[in-house]
Write a structure and sequence with these properties.
The complex is a heterodimer.
Chain A: E1 3-7, E2 36-37, H1 42-45, E3 76-85, E4 95-100, E5 125-129, E6 135-141, E7 146-148, E8 154-156, E9 159-164, E10 173-179, H2 197-201, E11 204-205, E12 218-221, E13 224-226, E14 229-235
Parallel strand pairs in A: 3-12, 3-13, 10-11
Antiparallel strand pairs in A: 1-14, 3-6, 4-5, 4-9, 7-8, 9-10
Chain B: H1 20-24, H2 26-29, E1 51-56, E2 58-59, E3 70-75, E4 100-104, E5 112-117, E6 122-123, E7 129-130, E8 133-139, E9 147-153, H3 157-161, H4 172-175, E10 179-185, E11 188-192, E12 195-196, E13 206-207
Parallel strand pairs in B: 1-11, 2-12, 9-10
Antiparallel strand pairs in B: 1-5, 3-4, 3-8, 6-7, 8-9, 10-11
The chains are: A mainly beta, B mainly beta.
Chain lengths: 241, 208
Amino acid sequence: MNRSRELLPWDRALQPPAFTPGYKTSVLRSPRQALLSLHNSLSEVTGPVFGPDDLGPLDNDLILNHAQTGEPIGERIIVHGRVLDENARPVPHTLVEFWQANAGGRYRHKKDTYIAPIDPNFGGCGRCLTDENGSYFFRTVKPGPYPWRNHINSWRPAHIHFSVFGSGFVQRLVTQMYFEGDPLIPICPIVQTIPDKDAIDRLIAPLDLNASIPMDMLAYQFDIVLRGSRSTPFENRLEGN
Amino acid sequence: MPQTLDALKQTAAQTAGPFVHIGLAPRAAGFDIFEKNFSPVLVDERTEGERITIEGRVFDGAGTPIRDVLVEIWQANAAGRYAHPADRQAKDLDPHFRGWGRAAADFETGLWRFETIKPGSCIGRQGRPMAPHVNVWFVARGINIGLNTRMYFEDEAEANAADPVLNLIETPARRKTLLARRETRGTETVYLFDIRVQGEDETVFLDV
């Protein structure tokens, strides 16, 4: 018997459509033809497997992983949470990657020209594997908001980018985490590409005092939910069977 | 026992933004931070199969290369098996092939390239074999949710004609947007696969 579980589809009622004119760059970068809907085959339900050998010891510590002469400037924080699927099952041993601007809102990237300075002690990226319960955490400094060219005087709310794999390649998710209480969130054109208010709220990490470390750092909690799977497996019968 | 579906709501996607390289390909962003880096080279000297290069650009609706795109591929090994526990086909795994790679486009030309092997055919639904193909996913600034497509090989005409996915594309003229063109450069076999996000000859994208 050769059976696999089919993944549940993208929930298009809450996922951003490709064409969102309020976010101007999407206008020329969005397909106009309908996507071809495909039932899952092995090509969709499989995906790359990563292990501890892919990572280095400081990869989930953005406070230390680019420290040169000292530690980075900014509010020290922990970001932690769980990666689950829609069936509320933890997604264990999956690769989570994250990247962000520094405390002044500047990215260490050769294409970022914002006047805020680079922090010599901050790289702004990290990664980790979830544990057997789907949990992850990393240390960093809180990123700053920054201006960008969309409409005049557009500002991104403070955010951390996330990339998550899951088990099947089509579960691949790239998203952004925001911080509770940031007044820039509701006026951000990128946030507003999401058509569902509750889905936006789930991208906003609440302060988690219980996970903070007294006299050291505050914590924010961000749970990520990947596509789940149907209860009924489909067969990958071998040819001629 | 009945299973409760939709117990949780899936997390919404957001664009990877212009600085995606910091997180996913920091060397492309201009710095070296990780001891180990993911790469567009899927093979080592022990990997089995025919060496190929896959090269292409992603074009926007104005025909301009998207020069900040980040592309990932996922494919079966030379025998047609995926290195994943859900693939239980009776074919050998290749311990020297994970089947996944990541490439950042060149900031000047928009060109990205992978060094890999040609995958074998693997079984599809209802026992119908799928023609050899490479699964492609990419993100960039302006793309709100990653786009998925498949790259097939133009020199696999017979297998392509029977492929269950290519045959789902109603307009035969659009099937060719998924075919990579073979080119020989010295001893190198290159498959050219340009992707058009919008407009004339728009690539077929998959809702998978």
